[in-house]
Design a protein that fits this description.
Number of helices: 2
Structural class: alpha+beta
Shape: globular
Amino acid sequence: MEHTYIVKGMTCRHCAAAVTEEIGELSGVTGVEVDVESGRVVVTSDAPMDTIAVAAAVAEAGYELVQ
């Protein structure tokens, strides 16, 4: 399954790496692709994602899930 989110506050590759690492630790996640310029984060998983868990992972990385 593919899920697309918008994350606010990312400005560089370090930001992308932090978000990728935190979301990648969530159960069922098989891939994370981050586009810093647009704030778009595409998460591939083998089950539906819990948006609250994704938002918490993004917050742990220091950013904000806006959509």
